[in-house]
Design goal:
This protein is α+β, with helices and mostly antiparallel strands and 452 residues long. It has helices at residues 170-196, 206-220, 233-266, 277-301, 328-349, 360-383, 388-421, 428-435, 446-451, and strands spanning 12-17, 20-27, 30-37, 43-47, 58-64, 70-76, 84-85, 98-104, 107-115, 131-137, 151-157, 305-310, 318-323. It has two domains: 12-157, Immunoglobulin-like, CATH 2.60.40.1210; 170-451, Rhodopsin 7-helix transmembrane proteins (Rhopdopsin 7-helix transmembrane proteins, Up-down Bundle). A six-stranded antiparallel beta sheet has the order 7-6-5-4-10-11, with no helix packed on it. The protein has a five-stranded antiparallel beta sheet with strand order 1-2-3-9-8, with no helix packed on it. Strand 6 and strand 7 (84-85) form a beta hairpin.
Length: 452
């Protein structure tokens, strides 16, 4: 049998004999069956015959004549011998909704569709559970004559069976749920801490720290769609949207407030400058808007579908994967890489700022970690895409580690002083006075520059 129909058109495949194969699926209250033999004669398939005989079987008799006239007829075996057409029996009807018959590469391929329950007394209803079936074929002729030894009347299977599904490890799902949920709670705790005692975060631009935390909550939420054992179209869309928008908000907020500090301290003018929050928000929009436009175009032009494919790591299993044309993911990755590049440049530019304002070291650690996680996740995801566990791990763990690391290195030292050691927040003027031997620093209005 050299010919094989397209994969996954059917829910299950059975090799009933070396020369007889069967495919089937159930959808919308209908059963579709495809059966194939490595011969060009007639082919039959029967549902629920009596034990060790063809008697009582609901039979579907298939043949393709030399003039290419195709037929699959709905029949019933009243006894051993040629089965009767249902339409010739009392109250019987022809209940085949659709059928095709082909000869391909020396094989006869028959396919028909019927309702699960036709209401015809001569048709067997398709019930969930192990049922007895039969097959027969004549390798030499289309005439309804005895088939000889090419038959079997004791074949048991369940039409409701499907291929076993390769699933994601429960450990990965539990870790995603726990770490993702805790990360959201931690980001919310930071937001509330800033609102309660803003003076501890004066030099960090409190509004944009809260915006960063909100972006972190959105970004880390991208791991939750990965927790579905069988992805849906909605979960396929959710992952890049949550990751892309969360990443843009999170690092857009971080880099925009960093740019403001660099701009204030890089000026040679002795006159105080005012760079308002609304001005800085335009910078955040410079990260968020392009990402949103790209995701809208991606979703509108191609979007996602869920495909079924055979597992290469679990023979006999199938897996369901989110699918989109391959060009979109490199563009998405390039946009994230571009944001990280801007962050590296800004980190370098603020390296000499006063310590109270200088986030260069923690931002640098965040950038290094984010870049490392980005490269590792991309390499693992594309390099090991044959393994569903590796794919899901590569999509989720780098995001979790990146967000957690960023929140910890940026905020834990301040939270520690605020909640544990309870040290008083240090003012910029007193700190600069200590470092400059009491000299005055002109041209800086910190409350206006950092919080306006």
């Amino acid at each position: 049998m050299d010919y094989t129909p397209p994969e996954f058109e059917f829910a299950q495949f059975l090799q009933l004999s070396p020369t007889y194969a069967l495919w089937y699926y159930i959808s919308d209250g209908e059963l579709t069956v495809r059966y194939q033999t490595a011969s060009l004669g007639w082919v039959g398939f029967g549902i629920e015959p009596e034990l060790n005989t063809m008697k009582g079987a609901d039979i579907y008799f298939c043949r393709l004549w030399p003039n290419l006239t195709a037929e699959i007829t709905d029949r019933f075996a009243l006894d051993v011998g040629p089965p009767a057409l249902d339409i010739t029996l009392p109250g019987g009807t022809d209940d085949i909704l659709r059928f095709t018959v082909e000869h391909i590469d020396g094989n006869t391929i028959c396919q028909f569709t019927r309702k699960l329950d036709t209401g015809d007394q001569w048709d067997k209803p398709i019930l969930n559970g192990l049922r007895k079936h039969m097959f027969a074929f004549n390798p030499e002729t289309n005439d309804m004559v005895y088939h000889g030894p090419t038959r079997q009347s004791n074949v048991y299977f369940n039409f409701y069976d499907t291929y076993p599904i390769e699933e994601v490890s429960d450990a990965i799902i539990i870790i995603y749920g726990v770490l993702g949920g805790l990360c959201i709670l931690f980001a919310l705790f930071i937001i509330l801490s800033i609102a309660k005692q803003e003076e501890y975060f004066k030099f960090m631009s409190p509004v944009f720290c809260q915006l960063l935390c909100f972006g972190a909550m959105v970004c880390v939420s991208s791991v939750f769609p990965l927790m579905k054992q069988t992805p849906t179209v909605d979960s396929c869309y959710a992952y890049p949207w949550l990751l892309g928008m969360g990443f843009a908000i999170m690092f857009g907020g971080l880099f925009a407030k960093t740019w403001r500090l660099w701009r204030l301290f890089s000026t040679k003018s002795l006159k105080a400058q005012v760079i308002t929050n609304s001005t800085v928000l335009i910078g955040v929009a410079g990260f968020v808007v392009p990402m949103a436009i790209f995701l809208i175009i991606w979703s509108s032009v191609d979007g996602f579908t869920v495909i079924e494919e055979f597992s290469t790591s679990e023979p006999g299993y199938v897996r369901f994967m989110c699918h989109t044309p391959s060009a979109w993911w490199p563009i998405f990755a390039a946009m994230i890489a571009f944001v990280l590049l801007i962050g590296c440049i800004l980190t370098f530019m603020i390296r000499n700022l006063p310590p109270e304002f200088n986030d260069a070291e923690p931002i640098g650690f965040s950038m290094y970690n984010a870049l490392l996680m980005f490269v590792a996740g991309t390499a693992i995801g594309w390099g090991l895409n044959e393994h569903i566990q590796a794919v899901i791990a590569a999509q989720g763990f780098p995001v979790l580690f990146m967000v957690w690391f960023t929140l910890v290195v940026l905020f834990v030292p301040t939270l520690w002083r605020m909640w544990v050691t309870k040290k008083e927040p240090q003012s910029f003027q007193s700190s600069m006075a200590m470092r400059s031997g009491g000299s005055n620093v002109s041209g800086l209005n910190t409350s206006t520059a950092a919080d306006s």
